[in-house]
Amino acid sequence: MLTTNEFAKVFDTILSTPGMNEVVKMDLKISRKNVLLLSHIMERGLAKTDDKTSPLLAGITQENLEELKALGDEFLTKSGLTELNKKLTTLSESGKS
């Protein structure tokens, strides 16, 4: 089994191969429910925490992080869920206190 460090090196190698920075156009049809769920999963996965459960996310650059956050925002905007997501996030945060 790979150690965390070895796993991170493998992912770093894969992510640096030729063509990995090329833009890919995708035609995606997804329900609004799944857009909202995907957005929350992305936010949760990209949140900076002390928990280093994923070697791939541990090595993510700030540029890649911002690009993925923008992608999540674009999903919400295109599906008309930006305002709903903000309200749900506010409701969720108030429930934590």
UniProtKB/TrEMBL annotation:
Source superkingdom: Bacteria
Identification of the protein by name: Uncharacterized protein
